[in-house]
Predict the 3D structure of the following.
Amino acid sequence: MSKNHRGKGLKNVPAQGRGTCPICHRTGIKVVYETKVNEETLKTCKECFKTVQNKG
Ligand SMILES: [Zn+2]
């Protein structure tokens, strides 16, 4: 019962939300965070999202 639906929200996005982060270029990680970089919105990994957020 519990834990059966974890990550289900990512099943309908390509590759289950995984791919290469445009900033750190790591592959096979979750790239689902919309991050505003130089006036354009990129999908990045969680770490880069946090880094950008902290820069203000
Ligand atoms: Zn990244």
